[in-house]
Specification:
globular, 16 helices, about 450 residues, 3-stranded antiparallel β-sheet, 9-stranded mixed β-sheet, alpha/beta, about 40% helix
Length: about 450
């Protein structure tokens, strides 16, 4: 690919397509009353749960999550009471048992909870939702605050997978993002987790951070590979200071440009693949025996708000402030402000603030986009046949395809759209060709690379 073409597409701002339509298109038209009806009509089919813990002890300046700094425990305990109440409210609205396949704790820092409270929260989930025998329980972890007692609570709760935030081991980068985390600290956490029987471990890395270079990225990769996590996710830093005010503390002059970001991402990818990891989608890597790699090889990979996943459940119930859920009928998102969230659930109301009701066309385009993001190719006619739609009309509406083909980014053979081997990093760009909502609410998206 010519550098000029790569640079032009790399600077575009596009959705990450962890949902379709994406969150900026959610509105207040989907209310708590509608969510109530959707829950009551759910079939007894496998589902997943997401619990959002929106607290950290300090703010990392690169963070794009809904979280707040809590230096005292009282706000956390108050939130935990509201979270438990919401779990009860949702479970009470189900008309039949909902078997759970996966539980994911995100944040923020889920391990900011006291160990006894974390274990109690999982017990409540087990009481109100029947867990499948081999259900996965995953937790996002900040190694800097992981205490031995919490690892013991993981064992008691049946946690099966841990995902550790690493980002970068470069001290200069860490200073620039307000996150000091040594390799020894991370290695100690990995050793303790494995000793507790949690063998499925993943790391999160970020490229495009201030002062980051290809060399520092490769040094971080080398250190991570020495610990041999089963999965490594590599995300591009999304600098959106208009939405996240703490990002204004980052020196924009120290941020790498689009071409440098691409060089960092590709250098990381090449190093990980040389170390035995398989590339999964645009930003995940997994060892051959990992379930994510196996799903990718079988064409059974999926994508949701946690990124690439093996989870095929059609229902994802989100708990906590700002949490997003997906049901067969559409998306729902809770109140983002902690006080508003807590007030709603303490009054016995669902905390739904907004959402989106899916149309037949949304489901069709969503499946097309998911397959492009997961497989780097899609047979438009085959998917249209499942949805009773006309492939020719859909292909005509994807007016970017002609330009993408002219630039060598995709190959179009009949109804099959396939990304060129050197264009996989532009999967979001190709997916945007099928996004009928993209121009409706521009802005707020991260760079394509």
């Amino acid at each position: 690919m010519k550098d000029s073409i790569r640079a032009r597409y790399a600077e575009e701002r596009l959705p990450r397509y962890t949902s379709y339509p994406t969150a900026p298109h959610f509105t207040g038209a989907v209310s708590a009353r509608r969510y109530d009806k959707w829950l009551a009509s759910l079939p007894a089919a496998p589902a997943s749960l997401y619990l959002h813990i929106p607290f950290c002890r300090s703010m990392c300046w690169y963070c794009g999550c809904h979280t707040t700094v809590a230096r005292r425990d009282r706000p956390i305990l108050d939130y935990l009471a509201a979270l438990r109440r919401e779990i009860e409210l949702v479970a009470d609205r189900l008309t039949q048992p909902l078997p759970v396949r996966q539980i994911h704790f995100g944040g923020g820092t889920p391990t900011i909870l006291a160990p006894v409270d974390f274990a109690g929260l999982v017990r409540l989930l087990r009481q109100r939702f029947p867990l499948e025998r081999d259900a996965e329980i995953a937790v996002e972890i900040d190694p800097r605050t992981l205490a031995p007692a919490m690892i013991g609570a993981f064992g008691e709760a049946g946690v099966t997978r841990a995902n550790l935030g690493v980002q970068s081991f470069d001290v200069q980068v860490q200073e620039a993002i307000n996150r000091r985390q040594g390799f020894e600290q991370t290695a100690a956490a990995v050793t303790a987790l494995r000793a507790a029987g949690i063998d499925s471990i993943g790391f999160d890395l970020i490229y495009g951070l201030p002062h980051q270079t290809v060399r520092s990225c490769l040094e971080t990769v080398e250190a991570c590979v020495a610990l041999r996590p089963g999965r490594i996710a590599v995300f591009g830093y999304a600098h959106l200071p208009g939405f996240k005010k703490h990002q204004r503390k980052i020196d924009e002059a120290a941020l790498p440009g689009g071409s440098a970001r691409h060089d960092q991402a590709e250098a990381i990818a090449e190093a990980l693949m040389a170390a035995g990891y398989r590339r999964i989608g645009i930003d995940h890597f997994a060892l051959p025996g990992d379930r994510l790699a196996e799903a990718s090889a079988k064409g059974a990979l999926h994508r949701n708000f946690q990124g690439y996943t093996t989870d095929s459940a059609e229902t994802l119930i989100g708990f906590g402030a700002s949490a997003i859920g997906r049901l067969p009928q559409g998306y729902v998102q809770n109140e983002t402000v902690l006080g508003a969230y807590a007030e709603r659930v303490q009054r016995g109301e669902l905390a739904t603030a907004r959402g989106y009701r899916l149309t037949a066309e949304d489901r069709l385009r969503g499946e097309l986009i998911e397959r492009l993001m997961c497989d780097f190719e899609v047979d438009v006619a085959a998917i249209c046949a499942r949805h009773g739609a006309a492939p020719a009309e859909l292909m005509r509406s994807a007016n970017r395809l002609e330009a993408l083909a002219a630039d060598g980014i995709v190959q179009v053979e009949g109804s099959v759209v396939r990304l060129a081997d050197d264009s996989h990093f532009l999967a979001r760009t190709v997916a945007s060709a099928f996004d009928a909502h993209l121009g409706a609410r521009p802005g707020g998206f991260s760079r394509a690379v």
